[in-house]
Amino acid sequence: MRAHLARVDAVLVQAVIAAALSFAHLHDVASAAGQDGWKAWAYPVSVDLLLVAAWRRLRSGEAKAAGWCWFLIALAASLGANVATAGLLDLDHVPAWLRILVAGWPAVAFLGGTLLVHSSPTTHNETSDAVGQEKPEDIEDQEDAPDPAPEPPAPPAVEPAPAPAPPPVTVPAALVEHARKVAAEHHARTGTAIDTPTLRARLGVPPPMADAIAAQLT
The whole model's pTM is what? Predict the structure, then answer.
């Protein structure tokens, strides 16, 4: 336990020293570029905050291209200030291009911080998770759904009942005798037996009765 705490303390001490040195270098460069007073102290804070925001985006696993872009920009600003204070740059006579970079840094840092913080990288994951959670439920619902009931068989076709036979026609005997006379007269005149339509026309009776009379004449 003590060894672990010792290692952690050593890392923290090293991190604090490195941060303090980088903070001081950025302050010196900003001050040499004409940003005096509290503005010179704000530049190191701006660079470090942009580094932290970009590192958090990289660790979230989303929009890594944007995270790497702003991380490298902030790292270049911090590393450039550290190298510039190593004697490679005359801080008493800062070139114009460095003054331009230092003066334009607040706008760049504001843009980068806004894009990194106010975007929603987890929207895609939440949507994918929601869809992934709904699919198994849909599958389970489909598996648990009962089979549709079979359709009842169609009733057998009912054949129409045959029409009842017509009742027998009763022919009076007198009408039959009269029909015999008409048939004999027709045979004597034409030499052929009288047919049913002619008999019906001569007697003026309906077809069923004419058929019954013709059946009795044969």
Answer: 0.46
- Amino acid symbol at 20: A
Distance CA 192, CA 194 (A): 6
For 89-127, what is each residue's pLDDT tens digit?
777 787 888 888 888 888 888 888 888 877 655 544 455
Give percent of the chain with pLDDT exceeding 70. 75
Q: What is the pLDDT of residues 37-64, one digit of tens each?
A: 888 888 888 888 888 888 888 888 776 7
DSSP string over the chain: -HHHHHHHHHHHHHHHHHHHHHHHHHHHHHHHTT--THHHHHHHHHHHHHHHHHHHHHHHTS-HHHHHHHHHHHHHHHHHHHHIIIIIS-TTS--HHHHHHHHHHHHHHHHHHHHHHSS-TTHHHHHHHHHHHHHHHHHHHHHHSPPPPPPPPPPPPPPPPPPPPPPPPP--HHHHHHHHHHHHHHHHHHSSPPPHHHHHHHHT--HHHHHHHHHHH-
d(CA 84, CA 78): 10
CA pair distance 70, 113, nearest whole angstrom: 9
